[in-house]
Design brief:
The structure is a homodimer. The first copy, chain A, has helices spanning 35-47, 63-68, 87-97, 108-121, 123-132, 139-156, 169-187, 196-200, 202-211, 215-220, 224-235, and strands spanning 4-5, 26-30, 51-55, 76-79, 82-85. By secondary structure, chain A is of the alpha/beta class. The first copy, chain A, folds into two domains: 4-101, Glutaredoxin (3-Layer(aba) Sandwich), CATH 3.40.30.10; 108-235, Glutathione S-transferase Yfyf (Class Pi), Chain A, domain 2, CATH 1.20.1050.10. The first copy, chain A, is globular.
């Protein structure tokens, strides 16, 4: 997408110098496999806002990154000396400064409703991370947890999208975790999750297919095999942040 | 305060009937000792918005409550058939429908900054709940955790309030947990936390004194001995939600 510059640029390490940011430009500090940062990528894509992406090593954090975000997490955006982080705060900030492309509805109740949906769907991320690390002792509880989260997601889907007829705020915020849930059977083949999504969640399955057709999702999504390779490297304590980057 | 009706009304149980809500009125479903519900109380008080309060038993949850909020948590507000929950969502909704008394600033960056402060100060609530339940095994780690959270809070306080010269959104959202941290030495005398706040955190100590002078805090705050009695009852699995209510 023409509005992204550097979405797949090489990840910067502590020894790398931070390129200067031109006045008026917006920069996104990103990690290519972080679902929270992906929320910001989806938002920039959906709003078609021009952005320069800096990919950051989150295990060995550059000093210049911690100076900008003391929590050391992604996403962070920088804009005329202003620093904004936390994925939901970044999304609202982008809507506030570019109101013409606001993803959040203007109506107070509909706005609140989108945020409540995100809260109710957040059980998916908890369940995903639980299963990612599940041991023989707790994998049964983890699978039950995921089923419960997906049951909720299935029941809350009453239209094409969580945003209604078109995709909205809740869709942008929940998608990155659903993308990873879909890949979980490949990341953890030992858990035998293959059929989990397909048969029990017809609405959610159709929703995932629908989401994959959205231009913003096409920008942000990573191939399943890259997710698998990333998590394999992550487990070793040395995540490979540059998986899938092809030499220029 | 004249705008509150029923802030200290008797807590309703599953067998109690829910009184009808008049059209145009706003109702807050509350639990008198819940810090998240207290955020909403502070917000209604600060904005001087008229509200009817229903106190709800959160151990034995009334069916009518779960129908309104499937998560069964407080605060929830009800307003002309609309249901809004999650404390931060409730606060923004109240600002959206009563913009003249908006607590959140209009400027996008200042808005974002208030929300980032809440995120950074949220370590206080985690540390508080950790110490509330601390055992001999983990109390040292719990105390270190609280100190770290308070160090951050001390360093982030660069003016009279987190909102700046006057109290703001971040103050309303962080206060309920600070109120409880101050009472922690009485709830858990075995942890010897008495001098924790007084000596190491001069800015925070002055801030707490300043907060207690605000009209909205005077409405929402509970006496230390009521917090202690509540937590003593909570530990038994039978929380006494009606501590401090005097017969009409």
């Amino acid at each position: 997408m023409a509005n992204f510059h550097g979405l797949n640029s090489i990840t910067l390490n502590p020894d790398d110098e931070l390129p200067p940011l031109a006045s008026g430009k917006i920069r996104l500090y990103n990690m290519r496999f972080c679902p929270y940062a992906e929320r910001a990528v989806l938002y920039f894509a959906k709003k078609n806002v021009s952005v320069e992406v800096i990919n950051v090593n989150l295990v060995d954090k550059p000093k210049w990154y911690l100076e900008r975000n003391p929590l050391g997490k992604v996403p962070t955006i920088e804009h005329d000396g202003k620093i904004i982080y936390e994925s939901a705060v970044v999304a609202e900030y982008l809507d506030d400064i570019f109101p013409d492309s606001s993803v959040l509805p203007k109506d107070p109740y509909l706005r609140a409703h989108q945020k409540i949906l995100v809260e109710r769907l957040s059980a998916i991320s908890g369940a995903f991370y639980g299963l990612l690390r599940a041991t023989a002792d707790n994998q049964e509880a983890g699978i039950a947890n995921l089923k419960k989260a997906l049951d909720t997601a299935e029941s809350l889907l009453t239209d094409n999208f969580y945003g209604g007829k078109s995709s909205g705020y809740a869709d942008m915020l929940v998608w990155p975790h659903l993308e990873r849930v879909e890949v979980l059977p490949l990341i953890r083949p030992d858990l035998h999750l293959d059929k989990l999504l397909g048969t029990d969640y017809p609405k959610l399955t159709a929703y995932i297919a629908r989401m994959k057709e959205l231009p913003e999702v096409k920008v942000a999504i990573r191939p399943a095999e890259h997710h698998v390779q990333f998590f394999d490297s992550y487990k070793t304590g040395k995540p490979d942040y540059n998986i899938g980057i092809t030499a220029a």
